């Protein structure tokens, strides 16, 4: 059961309104936000249709702050005997990994979504500890776009790696 629905991000709403009234200088930002939000909606659809609503609680689009003052965002958080953090990406095109760095196929380095996920997972664990909640946490990086390809992903790295874990929700 979804107990917190996803809402359109405020920045996206503002840029949408401005785009109708003037020529935006931040067209790339608007497109990136639209694409990201579309990917999150696609994820919501897949999760809603793929899980029995009686067996889980899902919260989307959370903005949280732990006792260290670190504010962080979680795309989707599922509770089913454990907390499962999902970082949803709507990347398209071809990417590759080299020395733990992420690149487009044209060799342009991008920020690692794994580092983003690990920071979110760490901040969430700290929040749970602050609240005295002792429930296991897993984190997954989800690519929803069928036009996404990742080359050179490690096959035999740490089983804790979000690139290598398989989600089991029994």
Please provide the count of β strands. Answer: 9
The main sheet orders its strands as 1-2-3-4-8
Number of DSSP helices?
Answer: 3
Helix content: 25-40%
Tally of distinct domains? 1
Shape: globular
| Rg, nearest Å | 17 Å
SSE-based structural type:
alpha/beta
First and last CA, distance: 15 Å
Mean pLDDT: 87
Query: Order of helices and strands, N to C?
Result: EHHEEEEEEHEE
State which percent range the strand residues make up.
25-35%
**Sheet with most strands:** 5 strands, mixed
Oligomeric status: single chain
Catalogue the unreliable spans.
Answer: none
Which secondary structure elements does this structure contain, and how are they paired or packed?
Elements: E1 2-4, H1 10-21, H2 27-50, E2 57-65, E3 71-79, E4 83-89, E5 93-98, E6 101-104, E7 109-110, H3 113-130, E8 137-143, E9 148-151
Parallel strand pairs: 1-2, 4-8, 5-9
Antiparallel strand pairs: 2-3, 3-4, 5-6, 6-7
Helix pairs in contact: 1-2
Pfam families: NERD (PF08378)
InterPro entries: NERD (IPR011528)
Protein name: Nuclease-related domain-containing protein
């Amino acid at each position: 059961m979804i107990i917190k629905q996803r809402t359109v991000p405020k920045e996206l709403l503002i840029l949408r309104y401005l785009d109708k009234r003037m020529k935006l200088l931040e067209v790339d930002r608007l497109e990136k936000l639209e694409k990201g939000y579309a990917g999150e909606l696609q994820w919501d659809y897949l999760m809603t249709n793929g899980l029995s609503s009686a067996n889980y609680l899902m919260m989307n689009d959370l903005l949280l702050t732990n006792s260290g003052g670190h504010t962080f965002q979680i795309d989707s958080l599922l509770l089913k005997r454990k907390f499962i953090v999902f970082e949803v990406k709507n990347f398209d095109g071809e990417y590759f990994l080299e020395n733990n760095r992420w690149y487009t196929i044209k060799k342009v380095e991008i920020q690692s979504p794994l580092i983003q996920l690990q920071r979110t997972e760490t901040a969430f664990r700290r929040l749970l500890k602050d609240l005295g909640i002792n429930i296991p946490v897993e984190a997954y990086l989800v690519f929803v776009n069928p036009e996404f390809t990742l080359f050179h992903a490690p096959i035999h790295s740490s089983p804790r790696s979000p690139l290598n874990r398989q989600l089991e929700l029994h």
